[in-house]
Amino acid sequence: MNTADIINTISSMHPYAYANIQGNSVVGRLMAYSYHSGTLLVVEASGLPVTQCMQGIHALHIHEGSSCASVEGVPYAASGQHFNITSCPHPYHTGDLPPLFSTNGQAWMAVYIDKFTPEEIIGKTVIIHQNIDDFTSQPAGNAGTKIACGEIVRFY
After folding, report:
1. In 3D, which of 145, 142, 153 has the Cα closest to residue 25?
2. Peptide bond into 89 cis (omega under 30)
3. What are the residue boundaries of the structural domains of the chain, listed by start?
4. Which H, E and C letters describe 50-89, residue by residue?
């Protein structure tokens, strides 16, 4: 695995799966590429809340639910809990990801994850939270309100 190989994968291949991420002000996309024995994730988002110094840090997780629907007035409640096929505690859930770091409400990130393959996250959701994940609190890192959601589907 090297940077040139990763850039080539992103620029020359379609993602295996993707999600259009939407919230009140947030718009973005998650793209999942098959890479080695795991997944190369690329996430972009704009309209993120600015917290301090024109920056924001927002928790990002794959959730077990298949829908971004609200339940009883709670936004994105149908997304469920963190995707966790190993029954490990937070921050070792299968769906726990590095946070999004934004400047002026915009963020971009690429990360290699070997905890799941793109096939395993199809039918799941991706959630951006209001706050940073503290990587300690159970069950979800005290990440705050779900501010955006996307349903992960197969790219055709």
Report:
1. 145
2. no
3. 3-154
4. CCECCEEEECEEEECCCCCCCECCECCHHHCCECCCCCCC
Closest CA to 127 of 21, 35, 38, 51: 21
CA 108/CA 110 separation, integer angstroms: 7
Q: Of residues 140 and 34, which shows the higher confidence score? A: 34
Fold of 3-154: Immunoglobulin-like (2.60.40)
Does the pLDDT of residue 57 top 90, yes or no?
A: yes
